[in-house]
């Protein structure tokens, strides 16, 4: 074959690959699609794995943004996760379409896509449970393939902040599933700000908490978090931007949902869920989006279901720009990790802390808020901020906090704290039975293995293209 012919064939295949069919791709096809996409768009995409499933299939995440392979100070990290229940498959199709849409929009200089990718780093995990997907049948209602390869429901396998320290230690000794370990490691590796987890079997946007220990969080049958106002807003953004979710249709078997939103616990309590874990332990606000009554909709309905969800998927990403963001600097002007940044009236179980870049992100509705910043060796700083609505212009309000040293008698500054584990925090406030000072021990595997594909992806993508040419 002449090299010109080969080149033309390659170009042809790359063009074909740029329109994604509306059908259920196998895990292997999905992997190939992501590899090809990354190979042809290395400037705005970055493919990485957060670890293997039980049978060793990689949990691929595609990151999109102007700096897709690393964090940029001031650019919030957003994520979507789908197919955690292997037989709830619409989310996986929609997230692949979303990837395709964002990349195509960017390549065509469409403002909406440029704005998203210019302001946000979007991470997409189309399947958190590839083994369950392989085992599922195409039934609307039943749950074959819901669990992972070991038959474990991954949305019950996370540490539960309400379950008490004893229970946590017990769970640690039991096996935490590979897919859950991978996600816990992922949450430690990036400071995510906002997230949604896509499910099927209902049509509703559900928000934390899912769990409770019967404490003061229980209000009128709901388990209410300190950021309830923000969560309700986020859920309504999804349901009202969606073609029909806001009408509150109940899929025949449960009660109707006002505005198409619900508190998780109020709908039905569950422990070990992923959304509470994200919020309590990783300071990432996460929603559980139930996006179709039928868990495995017929393939010919996929284009219409995409049209119902497209606007809401994009509008929800934009909400990552609510509130305030910035850095905390110590007395010598250096950004500091683990400074506690609290908002008056919002006593989070684990107080929000600055990340390794000294950054904080705090999603808030417009209004005046009193912030308190605490860091060892420094005076407690309190400032009131007038917070505007950020999503319209793709940026939260920017505000840095400048701490001042407490002078010591010896004239030396006090020791900085060591880089404490991200999941360790101060529990003297709030509910004393919570466990946020408890460090989660990951099972045997220890740290999650991470493969990155930026450079290698180009080569492998071409190999994949060539392989598909051969047959
Ligand atoms: C998009 O804009 C860039 C720079 O302005 C230009 O080079 C490119 O040709 C444009 N692409 C399309 C598809 O219009
Ligand atoms: C990209 O972001 C910068 C600020 O970070 C802004 O000045 C610029 O207008 C943005 N471009 C687009 C296309 O949104
Ligand atoms: C916030 O405070 C400013 C004065 O600093 C005031 O003008 C404004 O009305 C307040 N906004 C709200 C929502 O209370
Ligand atoms: C924990 O919080 C309490 C009350 O706000 C405070 O007095 C104490 O210094 C904090 N401890 C740490 C280690 O941050
Ligand atoms: C948190 O845990 C550390 C060590 O595990 C312990 O020294 C500290 O006293 C605990 N803090 C609280 C507030 O319980
Ligand atoms: Zn589900």
Written description of the protein model:
There is one protein chain. The protein has helices at 3-17, 27-40, 90-107, 111-119, 130-135, 165-173, 178-189, 228-241, 264-267, 274-282, 302-318, 454-470; strands at 45-52, 58-64, 77-82, 121-125, 192-199, 202-207, 218-219, 222-223, 261-263, 285-292, 324-329, 340-343, 359-362, 367-374, 381-387, 397-398, 401-402, 451-452. A nine-stranded mixed beta sheet has the order 9-6-10-5-3-4-2-1-18, sandwiched between helices. Strands 11, 13, 16 and 17 form a four-stranded mixed beta sheet that branches. Helix 3 crosses helix 4 (111-119). The protein has two domains: 3-321 and 447-452, Zn peptidases (Aminopeptidase, 3-Layer(aba) Sandwich); 327-434, Immunoglobulin-like (Sandwich), CATH 2.60.40. The chain has twelve helices and 18 strands. It binds 2-acetamido-2-deoxy-beta-D-glucopyranose (NAG) (5 copies) and zinc ion. Residues 85, 88, 199 line the site of zinc ion.
Strands, helices and their partners?
Blueprint: H1 3-17, H2 27-40, E1 45-52, E2 58-64, E3 77-82, H3 90-107, H4 111-119, E4 121-125, H5 130-135, H6 165-173, H7 178-189, E5 192-199, E6 202-207, E7 218-219, E8 222-223, H8 228-241, E9 261-263, H9 264-267, H10 274-282, E10 285-292, H11 302-318, E11 324-329, E12 340-343, E13 359-362, E14 367-374, E15 381-387, E16 397-398, E17 401-402, E18 451-452, H12 454-470
Parallel strand pairs: 3-4, 3-5, 5-10, 6-9, 11-16, 11-17
Antiparallel strand pairs: 1-2, 1-18, 2-4, 6-10, 7-8, 11-13, 12-14, 14-15
Helix pairs in contact: 2-12, 3-4, 3-11, 8-11
Signal peptide: 1-19
Domain Peptidase M14: 23-320
Active site: 290
């Amino acid at each position: 074959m002449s090299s010109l012919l080969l080149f033309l064939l390659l170009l042809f295949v790359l063009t074909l690959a740029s329109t994604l069919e509306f059908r259920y791709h196998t895990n292997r096809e999905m992997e190939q699609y992501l590899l090809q996409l990354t190979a042809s768009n290395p400037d705005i995409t970055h493919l990485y794995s957060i670890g293997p499933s039980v049978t060793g299939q990689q949990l691929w995440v595609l990151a999109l943004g102007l700096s897709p392979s690393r964090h940029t100070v001031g650019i919030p990290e957003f994520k979507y996760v789908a197919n955690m229940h292997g037989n709830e498959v619409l989310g996986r199709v929609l997230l692949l379409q979303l990837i395709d849409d964002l990349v195509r929009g960017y390549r065509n200089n469409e403002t909406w896509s440029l704005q998203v990718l210019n302001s946000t780093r979007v991470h997409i995990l189309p399947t958190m449970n590839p083994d369950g997907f392989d085992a599922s049948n195409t039934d609307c209602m039943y749950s074959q393939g819901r669990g992972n390869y070991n038959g474990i429901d991954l949305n019950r396998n996370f540490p539960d902040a309400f379950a008490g320290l004893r229970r946590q230690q017990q769970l640690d000794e039991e096996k935490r599933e590979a897919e859950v370990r991978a996600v816990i490691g992922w949450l430690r590796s990036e400071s995510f700000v906002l997230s949604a987890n896509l499910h099927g079997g209902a049509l509703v946007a559900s928000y934390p908490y899912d769990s409770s220990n019967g404490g003061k969080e229980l209000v009128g049958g709901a388990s209410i978090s300190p950021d309830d106002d923000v969560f309700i807003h986020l859920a309504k953004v999804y349901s009202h931007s969606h073609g029909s979710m806001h009408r509150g249709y109940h899929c025949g078997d449960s009660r109707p949902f006002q505005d198409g939103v619900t508190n998780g616990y109020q709908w039905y309590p569950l422990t070990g869920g992923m959304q509470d874990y994200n919020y309590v332990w990783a300071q990432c606000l996460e929603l559980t989006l139930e996006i179709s009554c039928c868990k495995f909709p017929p393939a010919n309905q996929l284009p219409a279901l995409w049209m119902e969800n497209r606007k809401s998927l994009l509008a929800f990403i934009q909400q990552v720009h609510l509130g305030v963001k910035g850095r905390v600097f110590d007395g010598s002007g250096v950004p500091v990790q683990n400074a506690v940044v609290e908002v008056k009236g919002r006593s989070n179980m684990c107080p929000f802390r600055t990340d390794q870049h000294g950054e904080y992100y705090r999603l808030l509705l417009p209004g005046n808020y009193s912030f308190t910043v605490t860091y060892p060796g420094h005076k407690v700083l309190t400032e009131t901020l007038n917070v505007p609505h950020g999503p319209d212009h793709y940026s939260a309000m920017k505000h840095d906090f400048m701490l001042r040293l407490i002078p010591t008698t010896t004239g030396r500054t006090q020791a900085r704290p060591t880089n404490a584990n991200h999941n360790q925090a101060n529990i003297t406030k709030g509910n004393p039975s919570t466990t946020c000072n408890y460090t989660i021990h990951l099972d045997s595997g220890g740290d999650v293995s991470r493969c990155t594909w930026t450079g290698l992806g180009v080569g492998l993508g071409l190999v994949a293209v060539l392989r598909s040419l051969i047959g």
